[in-house]
Amino acid sequence: MQVDPHLLRTFTAVARLGSFSGAARELGYTQSAVSQHVAALEADLGTELLRRRPVVPTPAGERLLEHAGPLLLRLAAARADVARLSASAAGRVRIAASALAMVEPVVASIAGVRPATQITIQALGRAAAVAAVATGVVDIGLVDGIAAPSDPLPLESTGPLARVAVAEQPLVVAVPQRHPLAARRGVRLADLADARWIDAPDAAVELDRLRAVCGTGAFRAALRVEGTDVRGVLALAAAGCGLVAVPAQALAGAAAVGLELREPRVVHRVEVLHGPAVGGAVGAVAELLANA
Questions:
Q1: Which residues of the chain fall below pLDDT 50?
Q2: CATH number of 92-166+269-290
Q3: Architecture of 168-265 per CATH?
Q4: Residues 224, 199: contact at Cβ < 8 Å?
Q5: Beta strand pairing status for 267-274 and 140-147?
Q6: Where are the domains of the chain?
Q7: Residue 137: predicted pLDDT
Q8: Could you read off the pLDDT of 71-105 as tens digits, one per residue?
Q9: How far are the Cα atoms of 41, 130, 292 from residue 74, in angstroms, in the given order?
């Protein structure tokens, strides 16, 4: 059984917005067309996907949503990958960077690009940066995360993207200067599992990743911060609002103290992402970044 991606895209918009009219405005369709798309998809799959009042997914709809995001992303990535093959070698390079990926050697390599190349850098969350590269919204991605030394980052499957590691740094936990552990040089992550943490998924290491590498469901969030303001998050950590894990270099100039993470053995890693075949200005910048 084949699922029409246009119908699937309409269904995900309705489910996300909880509104047929809202989905119509977002997609540029009439409300009648949106209703017809959802009805056609339900007919194809032989089951109800949305309850209408209120508009919420049924159990079958919830299951379909689990598949819909990755499927639509892969379709967009396939379109972008084909488009790259016929792209011109324009002197313009668009880069999406997660907040902690802009480490000093990487910034220096970008600054050394020839003046004729116009470079635009957009700060995005990690997942959004990966998706932007996969779908062709940007040419190159700079993405960070934690992994075992020399292991690739655990990224969502987005098609045949080239990946090159450009930096690995020790991981530290930022604590206030008067924290009871501030005088220690290192710490085991498990010893801090029950502490108060700041949940800043795009400006520090995600708490879900800490739970995964520590094998525990702990790491309670006392505060959530959205956005990519690393300095702001470190200021909150220094003020005692909670702990955050960041690469060691991020603490330069911050008031917080960094406790080096001794166990588990993981590092902060930065990778360059781009299409499998790039040339011109994009290829030149990608090569500079790979050698940063």
A1: 87-89
A2: 3.40.190.10
A3: 3-Layer(aba) Sandwich (3.40)
A4: yes
A5: antiparallel
A6: 5-85, 92-166+269-290, 168-265
A7: 83
A8: 877 777 677 666 655 544 456 788 999 999 876 66
A9: 20, 12, 29
The amino acid present at 219, given as its one-letter code, is F
Residue 20's pLDDT is what? 93
- Please report where in the chains the tokens 């090569």 appear, as a residue: 287
Whether the bond into 5 is cis, omega within 30 of 0: no
3 state DSSP class of 27: helix
Does the pTM of the predicted model rise above 0.85? Answer: no
Half-sphere exposure of 188 (CA within 13 A, CB side): 4
**Token pair for residue 139?**
């040419």
Whole-number pLDDT of residue 89:
47
Strands 92-97 and 140-147: parallel
- Arch. (CATH architecture) of 5-85: Orthogonal Bundle (1.10)
Quick check: helix, strand or coil at residue 92?
strand
